Amino acid sequence: MPLSKLLAVQYPTQTMAATTMSNPGVDQLLEFFWRDYSSITPAAAEICNLLAARGERYVNDHIAFRTFNLDPIGVDSLGATFTRLGYTESGEYHFEKKRLFARSFAPPAEELPHVFISELITQDFSPQLQRIVRGLVEQIPASLKNSSELFTRIPSWKPVAYADYRRLLEESEYAGWLSAFGIRANHFTVLLNALSTFNSIGEFNAWLVANGYTLNASGGEVKGTPEELLEQSSIMANRVGWEFAGGEMHVIPTCYHEFARRYEDPATGRLYQGFIAKSADRIFESTDTGVAA
Ligand code: NI
After folding, report:
1. Measured distance CA(152)–CA(21) in Å, rounded
2. pLDDT for 243-274, tens place per residue?
3. What is the CA(164)–ligand 1 centre distance, in A?
């Protein structure tokens, strides 16, 4: 089944090029994110196809983005696009060890995905890391602060030197990943509540393994519990050939796919809307290369 057919389940399909998007609406943006993400994450489209073959409906729970805490691309600047589209801030999260700060944004309509944006606290790293990162971020015009072009301008910066990528990985897997890929969807997430042929996240995970996927086992294959109102799992990122400065190609982890089951929040009578920092902390490791200590 062509991807566009599958997307029609969740997002209206329309032909559009990033360069022609001025003031995109939420559907246009979501479609753009999916096209970009699935183009470098073959597993995402495969899982979509496998679910469709079971007669399942793909509902996206959330999309996550990574950034650096530097102007003009800090978490608040990226978040501005979503608040303009009617999203509201729904939580903030601190990841002490990885030196990350994040915010989540709840959608204006139930059928739309949540958004999770994290940023690396760059001043907590070595002068060398900060110098490499500044060299990337400086390529983005300051005038784009708060603009949705921060997302649709792909690539965000010229290919990073492979030596710099490796240097960043030694200090922060997150920084290394971001230097190679720039600002783009890091993962989409299947909302398991919307599936009818799986009884639990464990059953879903077993199905993924039977289909040849490797689960992220950091902190256990299932992160979170029904009592915490959110269970999550993810597969390890796809590895694809990626271009670095000078046309050098290396096979590195790109993006991964995540799975989430939400439970009713007794406080509101609705499905829990937030995220759990200690679960997200381990999910970040789905793009690990094995370089960092
Ligand atoms: Ni996530």
Report:
1. 8
2. 999 999 999 999 999 999 999 999 999 999 89
3. 27
35-44 CB burial, b ≥16 within 10 A, e <16 = bbbbebbebb
Low-confidence stretches of the chain (pLDDT beneath 50): 1-20, 293
- Count of all residues that appear for the chain in the document: 293
Q: Cα–Cα distance between 261 and 225 in angstroms, integer?
A: 10
Contacts of 168 (CB under 8 A, 6+ apart): 129, 132, 133, 175, 176, 179
Read off the tokens for 59: 């509902």
Domains of the chain: 3-287 (3.10.180.50)
How many Å lie between the centroid of ligand 1 and the Cα of residue 86? 21
Q: Helices (H) and strands (E) in the chain — how many of each? A: 10, 11
Burial class (CB in 10 A: 0-12, 13-18, 19+), 96: exposed
Cα of 142 from ligand 1 centre, angstroms: 28
Distance from the CA of 234 to the center of ligand 1, in angstroms? 8
Q: What separation in angstroms does the CA of 290 have from each of 171, 252, 266, 284, 287? A: 12, 11, 40, 13, 9
What is the reported pLDDT for 21? 64
pTM: 0.90
